[in-house]
Amino acid sequence: MAVSLPEETQLEPEGRPAGRGRPAATLVALSMTLVVSVLAGVALGPTVVPPGDVVRFLYAALTGGSIGADEVTGYSIVWHVRTPRVLLAAVVGAGLSVVGVAIQALVRNALADPFVLGISSGASVGATAVVVFGVFAGLGVFALSAAAFLGALGATVLVYLAARGPMGLTPLRLVLTGVALAYGFQALMSVLVFLAPNGQAARTVLFWLLGSLGSASWESLPLVTAAVLVAIVVLLRQSRSLDVLSLGDETASSLGVDADALRRGLFVLTAAVTGLIVAVSGAIGFVGLVLPHVVRIWVGSTHRRVLAVAPLAGGCFMVWVDLVARTAFAPEELPLGVITALIGVPVFVVLMRRRGYLFGGR
Amino acid sequence: MAGTVLSLCELSVEAAGRTLVDRLSIDVAARRIVGLVGPNGSGKSTALRCVYRALKPTSGAVLLDGTDLTSLKLRDSARAVAALTQESHTELDFTVEEVVALGRTPHARGNHPLTDREHALCRQAMDRLDVTHLAHRSVLTLSGGERQRVLVARALVQEPRVLVLDEPTNHLDVRHQVELLSFLRGSGLTVLTALHDLNLAAQVCDHIAVLSSGSLVSSGSPAEVLTPELVRKVFGVDATVVRHPRTGTPQLLYDLAPAPTGTPAPADAHLEGPHS
Predict the structure, then answer these.
(1) pLDDT digits over A317-349, tens only?
(2) How many angstroms separate the most distant Cα atoms in chain B?
(3) Which of 3.40.50.970, 1.10.8.60, 1.20.140.10, 1.10.3470.10 is the CATH number of A77-352?
(4) pLDDT per residue as tens digits for the range B152-182
(5) What number is the ipTM of this complex?
(6) How far is Cα B243 from Cα B232, in angstroms, rounded to an integer?
(7) Do B106 and A256 touch (CB under 8 A)?
(8) What keywords sit in the KW lines (chain A) (predicted)?
(9) Measured between beta carbons, which residues in chain A are less than 8 angstroms from residue B83?
């Protein structure tokens, strides 16, 4: 059917997105949803623990209370296995969403995600080296995370040095450099996998590249949680500057915002947080790309609102994605990236085609 | 000069071994409109970039009330100098209201919400530029004229001492060009603007500075500056200067290049001067 163009351009003049009117109510509702999601994530799984028991076990664990002798298995599942994993899912989802918002502002590109600057590919090379060659064996269970973080750091430095030009870090140079270097890292990783002594290594690498929270433990939580919280606070404080940055570098300087300095700060912040996230969960795609867009459609583009809502929404989303990953084909686990892509791709296409959402111009 | 708010003082900008602006000096007095004209690539935008701090001069300075702008924090100079740059697009679909409010950025403390006075200021500016009815529209859906009015409103909210505009009438139809310049004329603001249209420049500006290859070649009132000799020398165009019948400002009538030899000339091709 023919598209009626005049109607397309006559976008609802009163078109305020639903969440724009009452930001506080949106935040409260989302926070409650996140708490319920986390409880559900802890309760559900191959073994279902009744919600009442979940709350009781968590209370016991937090206050040092006692539980029945016959409940030790359930308690162990809830406290030692699922709770850290579900919390990590929430943190990773929140972090990827926030970093996605920041990166899209940084490179001023609608299609950017936390991995566009080659950070995840660098991390993958590090992790692959651990799995295939056993480097960092001395670090034990942290070898993979440490190597991934170092890989991310290496990639960041390379991208930064390569993209730096006489005009500072311009968005286009950043994206082009990131994409080009990502190909390089992927090739390097393929070589590593190719040289791997057995197929199991390749399988592990692939699984890790698509993202997994299978290695979640209480120990993996503090650092990444702190990083994500710091990122949220720092970005929220810069939210007006982020708005201004999206108006263009020249307009930014005329409004008193040093675009180049802001971009350098954002680059360091997003690289560090992405590196830490990738180190504990692999490269989970699409969350950092799609969530920022969903949130903008919901509450508008102002970064203050987007940055307040995105972490909560991303946290909820990831908790449920991880639940599906654990339960859909239990005891087999699906890679998280598979599920986020299966949900994310159609959602993204629908959003892009939806009239009224204009990121990237008409 | 007494009452000078902004002065470009021996301003030079070099990039990649080329001199884009060469020892340019211009004074802008309070509540006056100064126009910067010149052919493409004559350094107008480059000079203006130094005024709104998107570029650092290689030598010389831009003085605001006698203070070198580069000695001020970017934020502090943005409180005094607002700008309409040529890049006016954003990718995010902010509402008109939100974009206008961003004019308060250099004044606002960090991430604090705007005060009541600032909200009132935004409403006033939107009223003045007649964009109040667009408040909740996405800026991405606006026409060129509407967008330019929104950006002027944003600049007003900045409460600047000087407003800098880089080709503000680009891509606007005649009506919107006239409306925008009429607004500037009546606004009482101190304005430094680059303009392409010499006739509009003659009508709106108190003072015109002509740039060619980065250097100032002429400066003065429109009547002093816009002479056939200058237009020929700087723009390479033959023009006849006439007086606007009502306002008396000089207006240019351009002569088209003579038809290539062999083509029969139209009967009235040699006519000179206006008919009405």
Answers:
(1) 999 999 999 998 878 888 899 999 898 888 878
(2) 71
(3) 1.10.3470.10
(4) 999 999 999 999 999 999 888 999 999 999 9
(5) 0.88
(6) 18
(7) yes
(8) Cell membrane, Membrane, Transmembrane, Transmembrane helix, Transport
(9) 250-251, 254
